[in-house]
Give the backbone structure.
Amino acid sequence: MGVSGPQVVEGWYGAPFSKPPARTREVVDVIRRVLAREAPVTNDGPHHPLPYAGEGATGLGKPLKSIVHPLRADIPIWLGAEGPKNVALTAEIADGWIPIFYTPGSAAMYQPWLDEGFARTGARRTRDDFEIAATCHLQITASDAERAAVVDALKGVISLYMGGMGAKDANFHKQVFERMGHRALSDEVQRLYLEGRKDEATALVPDELVHDMHIVGDAGYVKERVAEWESTGVTTLLLSCRTADEVRTIADLLA
C-alpha cells in the first residue's frame, strides 16, 4: 500500500490529499482489525471514521465484521514510502517496505529513517525480521552492445519518474532523486519533460545512474551486484522479467 500523490488522489479518487502519514497509520490499523475478525470494526479517527456519521450520512451505518476468513489473521502489510517521515512510519507499523529507488549507492541515506521507526515505542518489527523489497530491472546480457541497448532503454523510465510524474512542485519521485544528490539533473530533466522535450530529457540521464538503480550485465556482474544489494539489507528484489525462460535463467544463476 502507499499514499500515492495529490494528482492521483484528488484527480482520480476524488479525495483530499492531506496528512499522508496520519492517513496511512489509520488505514493500516483499520485493515489489521478487519483481517483479525475479532469484533465489528469501529474507528474514531478523522480520516476513515467507521461508522460514517458525517455530512450526508443516513444514520443507518453500523459496525460490521468481515465475512471473509483469511488463511491467517495477521497478513503482512508492506508500504511503499519515499520520504523520511513515511519511511520511518513504515519501519514502525509495517512488515515490509517497497522503496521505488532504493539502490546500494543510496542505501545509507535511508538507514537513519528506518532506525527512527524501529526505535519507536510499539514498533511492529526490528531490522532482523523486516522485509525490504527493492524494485530493480535485472537483465543478463551477452554482449557490450546488448548491455548498452538495455541501459539506453531504461533511461526513458528514469526520465519519466524524474520529470513527468506528479505536479511540478509535488513530484515525490523527483524529490527522491534530489536526496540522492541529483538535484541539478532532475531540475533540468523535469524542465525539458514538462516542455514536451522528452527525448532531450531522457538523453541527459547518465549511464552511471542507470547502473546504480538497475542490474544489467553478464552473469558474473549480475551475481556480484545482487550480493551488493543484499548486503545493504534488501531481502527481495522485485524484477521485471518478461518470460518464463528469463525467470528460470535468473533463478539458476542466483540459486
